[in-house]
Amino acid sequence: MKDEIMSKVRLTQYSHGGGCGCKIAPSVLAEILSGLPQAGMFPDLLVGLESSDDAAVYRLNDTQAIIATTDFFMPIVDDAYDFGRIAATNALSDIYAMGGQPILALAVVGMPIDKLPVETIQQIMAGGAAVCQSAGIPIAGGHSIDSPEPIYGLVALGIVHPDKVKRNNKAQAGDVLVLGKPLGIGVLSAALKKGELSAEGYQQMIDVTTQLNRTGTALSNIAGVHAMTDVTGFALLGHLLEICRGSQLHAQVEFNRIPFIDIALQLAQDGYATGAAARNWSSYAEGVTLGMEIAEWQRKLLCDPQTSGGLLVSCAPKSVDAVLAAFNSDGFNHATVIGSMQTGESQVTVR
Fold this sequence. Notes:
- The structure is a single chain.
- By secondary structure, this protein is an alpha+beta fold.
- The protein folds into 2 domains: 2-163, CATH 3.30.1330.10; 166-350, Phosphoribosyl-aminoimidazole Synthetase, Chain A, domain 2, CATH 3.90.650.10.
- It has 12 helices and 13 strands.
- The strands form 2 sheets. It has a 7-stranded mixed beta sheet, sandwiched between helices. Strands 1-2-3-6-4-5 form a 6-stranded mixed beta sheet.
- It is globular and about 55 Å long.
């Protein structure tokens, strides 16, 4: 009976958006945050709001800094267990993106209690717990509310040496850009909502979104890794622009070198896209130059919001082999060089 009840529950019908596509548009978020005070009076706060980085970092002593982040969203898939896994993987990614090692998580839970069976909520939380167990950390508590739409995610804490924190604003001219995961999750989610995603496409979606970005911990030990972030709701262009603006450099990207999920390429050409992709483009189009050969469907892929996306690394050319080796050893077979950082205006050029 339990399986029968859960098979009838379609989580996405209860939410107006899903995954990192729920994020507030970059330009709107910047306006919201503009009035907040800066944290200059706290010298041990190594990373705060200033650079739109993935997590906050606070120095505890000469050898330890704590990383703190939270990430949660509404369902991107209907399967409760998969939703929990995706949300937890995405939340822990912020710790890895700072070069840290996660140590603890708290659950953030908002559920329409009058609409969802208890068994469904249990499966969501079980999926998140399974990912945390894989990462070697406990879910030690959390907070829950009765909300009109399903929400799940984590508060995540991690640890890193203060000298090994990987910010998103320390790229150097001449650096090479490496992307760890293929793009296209937003396109797949758009097809899924319309009932047009194949079983193969769904499995590829789950494989990508539940792969922990644990390579970030190893990358913190590579001296030539200068900057790092993860590609999520603001898409490749948005998160790369954050690196450009923070580092005051120009990024050159080769579209044909970017890894994409194979099925997403065809779906994008067939017209599948998310509303968030359009919001992303309107937010940062002035910071992007696209070559004449870039078609409309390709532009939408560059703005495609990723949920639990890959690490984007800016590293010295001499460190590329070590960076790719670290990715490959963790099973990131799509990791590849996609471009470079150069002196010039803080923009992105794609050709």
